[in-house]
Amino acid sequence: MHGGPFDEDHELMQRRRDWRARREAMEAQPSGKRWRGQMRSYLYRTARRTHDVLRPTRPVRWGAERALRLGLTELTASFPDLPAAFDGYRILHLTDLHLDNIDGTAEAVAERVAAVESDLCVITGDIRDNIHAPMGPLMKRLGHVVSAVRARDGTIGVLGNHDSAAMVPPMEDLGIRVLLNETISYARGGEALHVTGVDDVHRFHTEDARVALESAPEGFCIALVHSPEVAHVAAARHRLYLTGHTHGGQICLPGGRPIAMGMKANRHLARGAWQHGDMVGYTSRGLGACVLPFRTFCPGEVVSVTLRKGPALVVGGGRKPRS
Ligand SMILES: [Fe+2]
User: How far is the CA of 11 from the centre of ligand 1 (A)?
Assistant: First the structure.
């Protein structure tokens, strides 16, 4: 005999065990070409050690303090096919927190999100900076952020390329539902809004992510993906794509011109609002800093997206960071 909640739970747990084994095997592998992976890890290690030595110095403290001045970007995204029951539904989008990099990041994010009311909070990865950082202090910082979130339907998230499979159980203990190549649905007034979340596709790409995006249910569906690199895959079945990874460049030239974005595909979707076919997307500048503990000409942002039923359109802008 098949069916029933026990079989479903058992199948889900087995799928998650299989996912974790696969992801951990990938985490143990060097990324990309061997020499490039070794060079990158050498540079990361050197940057981290230099940062640790220079952390108490005045210029580094000044840069870190400025990086934590976070802005609020409020967007309205309209869709003719949005279920009427979700007209006005607000999504708080957090990404690239890198909580173990700059001390005080969790407190700065918590202060920003505490002032924003929403229906659902979504986190699109890179909660940590160093994949080997100790779990206890990281989860304490994440718990501080999540406890400040004011979202009626709670918090869900996906992992980024800096995150590890081992983070999933403690994140779920904090009440964050982590989507591992799967879809969750929210019901209101007899209508549904679906959210598909996939594992990181930049460093840990698998066919499971593609399958999850391509087999999302019929109806209004939102994709949560760490990077914009699979927007073309999601566009067939999703109407909104929320993402990060690029930090908007993080280290930019005056005028916000980025030096590097760290993307392998869809580089034209690296920042801000965009459209791909019938799907609209937003690539957030994120909240924290990767490796180097500062940002230049590229402030971090909390994003609030209000869904509206109406002609297809994305409008809105940012509020300047607090100084
Ligand atoms: Fe990141």
Answer: 32
Q: How far apart are the first and last CA of the chain?
A: 63
Instruction: Please state, in angstroms and rounded to a whole number, the distance separating the CA atoms of residues 233 and 216.
Output: 11
Give percent of the chain above pLDDT 90: 63
d(CA 163, ligand 1 centre) in Å: 9
Q: At 50, is the pLDDT very low, low, confident or very high (cuts 50, 70, 90)?
A: confident
Burial of 54 (0-12, 13-18, 19+ CB in 10 A): middle
Question: Ligand 1 mean position to 193 CA, how many Å?
Answer: 27
Confidence at residue 318, expressed as pLDDT on a 0 to 100 scale: 59
Distance of CA 131 from the midpoint of ligand 1 (Å): 12
Q: Which residues contact 245 (CB under 8 A, 6 or more apart)?
A: 95, 96, 124, 125, 126, 160, 161, 202, 226, 227, 228, 229, 262, 263, 283, 286
CATH, range 4-319: 3.60.21.10
Place of tokens 């060079």: 39
Q: Please report where in the chains the tokens 């969750």 appear, as a residue.
A: 184
- Sign of the CA dihedral 130, 133, 135, 138? negative
Q: If you measure from the C-alpha of residue 238 to the centroid of ligand 1, how many angstroms do you get, rounded to a whole number? A: 23
Distance of CA 292 from the midpoint of ligand 1 (Å): 11
| Reported pTM | 0.90
CA within 13 Å, CB half, 154: 12
